[in-house]
Specification:
mainly alpha; three-stranded antiparallel sheet
């Protein structure tokens, strides 16, 4: 077997489903076909390539032109190849390791470490010899820590290396805090909690500390990973360091102006006019419209139809949705495993909803109306009158109270509202004595609904996950045919254009065939289209809002949902809030699910907020609490209306269509 492969990249098996493996099938077959099992000497690179080449045949990856006979011959050579690989590594010992293991390309590092473990090299050779050879090979500490047998065999030596360099704290952070880390991290058993804390402290003192990792420490949950040694002092040090870095960065860099502006226009006839100035969204609201709708129902409806807190199915638009984050946002930075995923779209909506609520709060006060009074009216007057729901109450804060006091009061009342509704949904009435006795902690994910199976979610079934990916992912191979036929996703491409089956390239058609087989697309011969507009609406909701509201669909659509549920594509659950909505409340109010949120409820009720005299901060918190309270009212009202509609009239009928 030739050893000079500088101009011919070595074969590397990346897995059965990786396209990088399929592209190398011919070269892998050539390596396996031409190697000489009797050769007296081989380089470690030759052996590692042979190991990878046999993996292709063992997993049935052959060149497309290979006959059945050629495939059988290749499979027969797998055992011989494995024997050659085994003999090479079994012959390694303390005396010859350095001579036999020289330079190894980066793409073979993990193979070398794994084969050392498989053939007991770590047990036969001393830690000093092993680590010296791995250093000469160019294998870094992070790669070493990915191999558990190596870490076990070289425990003390790797501990010493780990604590010697402050930037090695990143290895601890990858193990405990990073979401979707690229590889596993195994720490030496001898590494103590005190070692870990000292390493984090040294990292935060270092001028080389990466701001992404510093921020991860600042937002990490306390007490969830005790072996990390993270405490409140380290979190505060990380927060201050990251704040200083941010301040210094923007002092030297102008950045890009982003944000949201709101205004009330005296001469505007349209209820709202929206525009975009660069990355700054501008919303202008008609004073005539606002002054003409000062009755309480219209005030609440304005949050839905004017400020767009919810869509037409009363699903909140406020949460962060994965579909709104582009591929660059998903790859940038370091995501903590306990982080709420945030992107530009969420930041924009979060800021817009805050300033919209603040604007409306000030406007209504100029009309001698308090938003809290509107909420009080909803529970004390509207619910009993329209739905016979008695005893649900909301107590407004005192107008004379400071915003600090108002914020504390709203957080208490918000939880009381949730507990009242939960008892009403469970029992069909609210027993105030039972409310007084109940002391369970509020769980936003567990608030019951008045309806069975209110929300529809995609299951873990492979087919539905694949369908959603192909239709709506910005990485779907069906989103681009040519410069003239392209879109952000395949669903938009099909809806906005006349697309025929033949327009897709040959390699794309197997995906098109799959969607046709699954009953999602139909080929008329002249063009492709969605088989059912109702099914499309449901699938679109599952992708973009991460749920669909069952009772907002007409009977025909519900039948389709039921059919998809029957074949395992969908599941239905009954709660007041969708999973995404409940996560948004948890992010904003507490740390039960995420560690990077403002934790407003806990900070204010536990007295750990910032300067009590900072009225600007407390006003912002108060407006946020108002926003969340209004969102809860929207969801509760939707529940009551849907229940009344189901009880009195049954499923509604409506006509929906998809563009062609």
């Amino acid at each position: 077997m030739a050893t000079d492969r500088a101009a011919d990249p070595r074969v590397k098996f990346y897995g059965v489903h990786d396209l990088g493996s399929h592209w190398q099938a011919e070269r892998a077959a050539a390596v396996l076909e031409h190697f000489d099992s009797t050769a007296a000497s081989r380089t470690v690179a030759d052996v590692l390539e042979l190991h990878n080449a046999q993996l292709f045949a063992a997993n049935g990856l052959f060149p497309g032109a290979y006959s059945d006979e050629q495939q059988a011959t290749a499979r027969a050579r797998v055992r011989v190849a494995r024997s050659v690989v085994g003999r090479f590594f079994n012959d390694l010992n303390d005396g010859n390791l350095a001579a036999h293991v020289g330079d190894v390309g980066y793409h073979y590092h993990s193979d070398l470490l794994e084969l050392f473990a498989r053939f007991k090299v770590y047990d036969r050779c001393s830690p000093a010899t092993v680590l010296s050879v791995l250093d000469d090979t160019g294998i870094r500490l992070g790669e070493m820590l990915a191999q558990p047998d190596l870490v076990r065999a070289c425990d003390a030596e790797l501990r010493a290396r780990l604590i010697a360099e402050p930037t090695n704290a990143e290895q601890l952070l990858r193990k405990y805090l990073e979401r979707d880390a690229r590889r596993a991290v195994h720490l030496p058993a001898s590494l103590t909690t005190a070692d870990a804390r000292a390493l984090l402290d040294a990292f935060l003192e270092s001028d080389d500390a990466n701001p992404n990792w510093v921020e991860l420490i600042a937002t990490a949950p306390l007490n969830r990973y005790p072996a990390l040694g993270l405490d409140a002092k380290l979190k505060l040090k990380a927060k201050r360091k990251h704040d200083r870095w941010t301040e210094d960065f923007f002092r030297e860099n102008t950045g890009i102006r982003t944000g949201c502006e709101v205004a009330i226009a005296d001469e505007q006839s349209e209820p709202v006019e929206a525009s975009l100035d660069g990355l700054v969204s501008k919303f202008s609201y008609s004073r005539q419209w606002l002054e003409g709708g000062l009755d309480y129902p219209t005030i609440l409806n304005n949050f839905i139809y004017l400020f767009e807190f919810a869509d037409r199915h009363m699903l909140l638009t406020l949460p962060s949705f994965d579909a709104q984050r582009g591929v660059i946002e998903r790859l940038m930075g370091v995501a903590g495993r306990d982080d709420y995923s945030i992107g530009a779209a969420f930041r924009h909506k979060d800021q817009a909803s805050l300033v919209q609520t603040a604007l409306y709060h000030h406007f209504l006060r100029s009309q001698q109306i308090e938003l809290e009074a509107v909420v009080d009216w909803y529970f004390s007057d509207y619910l009993p009158k329209h739905f016979g729901a008695d005893n649900l109450r909301f107590v407004p804060s005192s107008q004379a109270a400071s915003y600090l006091e108002k914020s504390r009061h709203l957080f208490v009342e918000m939880e009381r509202v949730v507990k009242q509704f939960a008892l009403y949904a469970e029992n069909g009435e609210l027993d105030t004595e039972l409310l007084a006795i109940a002391s369970d902690q509020v769980s936003y994910k567990a608030i019951p609904s008045l309806l069975d199976g209110k929300y529809v979610y995609a299951s873990d079934d492979h087919d539905i996950q694949q369908v959603l990916y192909l239709l709506f992912s910005d990485q779907s191979e069906l989103a681009y045919i040519s410069e003239a036929l392209r879109a952000d996703d395949a669903a938009t491409l099909l809806i906005a254009n006349h697309v025929a089956y033949e327009d897709f390239e040959e390699y794309q058609r197997r995906r098109v065939d799959y969607l046709i087989e699954q009953g999602v697309w139909t080929d008329t011969g002249e063009r492709l289209h969605f088989t059912s507009p109702y099914q499309f609406r449901v699938l679109h909701g599952l992708s973009h809002a991460e749920a669909a509201s069952y009772y907002h669909y007409p009977a025909e659509a519900r039948a389709l949902i039921d059919a998809m549920a029957a074949k395992g594509w969908l599941v239905r659950r009954s709660t007041l809030l969708t999973d995404a909505e409940a996560s948004y409340f948890n992010y904003s109010l507490n740390q039960s699910e995420f560690s990077n949120g403002p934790d407003l409820r806990n900070r204010y009720l536990h007295g750990s907020h910032m300067d009590p005299s900072d009225e600007d901060e407390h006003f912002r918190t108060y407006v946020t609490a108002l926003k969340l309270l209004i969102a809860l009212v929207i969801k509760i009202n939707d529940d009551f209306w849907l229940q009344a509609d189901e009880t009195s009239r049954g499923p509604t009928s409506e006509v929906e269509s998809v563009g062609t």
